[in-house]
Amino acid sequence: MSRRVKLALYALLCVLCVPFVFPTWWMVTSSVKPISDIFAFPPALVPSRFDFSTYGRVFELQPFGQQYLNSLYIAAVVTAGTMAVAAMAGYAFARVRFPGQNVLFLVVLVGLLIPSEVTIVPLFQMFHAAGLTDTHWPLILVPVLGAPSVLATFIMRQFFITLPGELEEAARVDGLGRFGTFCRVALPLARPAIGAVAIFTFLHSWNLYLEPIVFLSTPSKFTLPQALTQFVDAYGSPLWNVQLSAATMTALPILVVFVLAQRQFIEGLAHTGLKG
Amino acid sequence: MTATNLRDRVAVPAAARPRPFWTIPRRDALVGYLLISPQLAGSALFVLLPLGLVVYYSLQEWNVLAGTFDFVGGENYAKLLADPNMGQVLASTALFSAGLVVLNLALALLLAVLLNQRLAGTTFFRTLFFSPVLVSLVAWTIVWQFLLQQDGGVNGLLDVAGVEGPNWLRGEGTALLSVVVVQVVKNVGLNMVLFLAALQGVPRQLYEAAQLDGAGAWTRFLRVTVPLISPTILLTSIITVVGSLQVFAQIAVLTQGGPGMSTTVLVYYLYQQAFQFRHLGYGATLSVLLFLIVAALTLLQWRLRRKWVFHES
Fold first, then answer.
1. What sign does the dihedral A229-A234-A236-A239 (CA atoms) show?
2. Which residues form the ABC transmembrane type-1 domain (chain A) (predicted)?
3. Would B230 be classed as within a structural domain?
4. How much is the pLDDT for B258?
5. Which domain, by its residues, includes B247?
6. Residue B13 has pLDDT above 90, yes or no
7. Range B185-214 average pLDDT
8. What is the enclosing helix (H) or strand (E) of A255?
9. Residues of chain A with confidence (pLDDT) below 50
10. Would you state the pLDDT for residue A100?
């Protein structure tokens, strides 16, 4: 490649980057800008001075700490639960033989065809009848057991299919039963697939918006995406500086984790796409 | 196959003695049922039951505010056909999905091809393009809401270039485009990564052979790259089409379906009818419509795969 082509490619990449990088940069820097800077026109790239006071106001206006905790624990429980359910079902569908297997697999696969929006009305009624609206149960049970985990099960199945059969045979000769083979042989080998499932399950739960606004009504039970839209003044206009600080606190931890572990992240996801 | 061999080998001596009840196939079946039971129970309770219920509800006139719940047969479906908003809603949904899919796949492929060049620093750029995927959705949307205001950052940039920008989110023509662009920039990194992985699987010799035959860069892309990555194109297009029909938070935060109904896509309309106006029966009818559209599109793409997918691994 000639130097001129290289330069042109770099220039193109830099221009294309702007809409990807600027919003995040702007969100993080604005969260520490004085309010006058936020509305400066054209926008200032670097804060003229640092003002962290809005970070305090985030916690005054709403039970933001509690909401943060809600999102974190819900995402953690959903991720762990989905990993368990999907690994078990994926393994059984891939490697164990039992009557009715194919039909049952098709029954489960129906979940892939159904966006959660389709079933939100009956799910709301079901949880309402069970007295579980305005609790976190719908936000945990449905993703772990329902349609969202079907994709995870599918990915796990695709992975387990590729495991060499000799491994299981060897395990069996060594005296391990089916369940032992699953736990001690197959599961440790499935770490890349489980990792990919964990990443996208966590992100999915962390971003969930429709379900929380349908199921939850008490602010102390809200999750972060729902809480973010509540920083408004008496007239319903957004308090931009507070909202941006809250948004930064929501987005930054995940970004930092990503930068630290980005290889595993991207490869895990790419892997999923190939196998799925 | 190996599983069967194994079974034969272990089961044969057992047949000589009085047969124990817990043969290996039986034990296997039990373990299999146990392992799938959580997922199966979940599918029955949270997928199949609600799917049946949504059809049942769509046959009811059900107004929570008035406290009425009556069987009305096909009335909700008649209402759907006569709904004066439906034309606009379906048009917005189709425009939104088409715009999103085309822009997303084209940009993802362009970025993947650029980052697949032998250039220093591609990992760095890959990280940058991927990063919005990880910014929480509502946080991302809120920032763009600010940037797209009349006196926001986007128009600030345009101003520097000497162009006066419109009020993006309030204009009939620009609101839908804005939501599409915000969504594409947010998620294109995912498709980019899938395309990158596919591109890295294309053998270099094929390019070299094509080059020897005198094929230019564009011809090589169309004749070598595209056919070889077509399974990935199919996969990403299915994911993106279905995903585009589910977009809700961006619209709820950015435009609330407006101005007029220009960004009221089907899911948003469904939410409004069911949970804002509390017409749950009509909401259920809209859910059935959404399900039919998603199912039809998925099956259509799956059918088409034979036509344009070059090979399947």
1. negative
2. 68-261
3. yes
4. 78
5. 88-308
6. no
7. 88
8. helix A240-260
9. 274-276
10. 92
Residue B277 lies in a domain: yes
Helix (H) or strand (E) holding B62: strand B60-63
The whole-number pLDDT of residue B1 equals: 44
Q: Which residue has the higher pLDDT, A206 or B307?
A: A206
Q: Choose the closest CB to A23 out of B136, B140, B232.
A: B140
pLDDT at B221 over 90: no
Share of chain B above pLDDT 90, in %: 35
CB-based contacts of A70-73 (< 8 A; 24+ apart in sequence): A70/A136, A70/A221, A70/A222, A70/A223, A70/A224, A71/A206, A71/A223, A71/A224, A71/A225, A71/A250
What are the chain A neighbours of B39 within 8 Å (beta carbons)? Answer: 85-86, 88-89, 108, 145, 149-150, 153
Look over chain B and give the mean of its residue pLDDT values, rounded to a whole number: 85
Q: Phi and psi of A64, rounded to 5°?
A: -65, -35
What lies within 8 Å, CB to CB, of B277 at 6+ separation is none
Residue B302 contacts A, CB cutoff 8 Å:
no
Is B121 domain-assigned?
Answer: yes
Q: Which fold has domain A58-274?
A: MetI-like fold (1.10.3720)
* Inside any domain, residue B288: yes
- Give the count of domains, chain B: 1
CB pairs under 8 A between A and B: 311
Q: Is B78 near chain A, with CB under 8 Å?
A: no
- The CATH number of whichever domain residue B147 belongs to comes to 1.10.3720.10
- From residue B224, give the alpha-carbon distance in Å to each of B107, B109, B214: 19, 14, 13
Helix (H, G, I), strand (E, B) or coil at B313: coil
> Who among B1, B2, B267 is closest to A117 (CB)?
B267
Residue B106, chain A, CB below 8 Å: the answer is no
Selected residues 183-202 of chain B with any CB under 8 Å from a CB in chain A: 185, 189-190, 193-194, 196-198
Residues from chain B contacting residue A116 (CB–CB below 8 Å)? 246
pLDDT at B17: 65
Q: Which residues of B touch A39 (CB under 8 A)?
A: 151
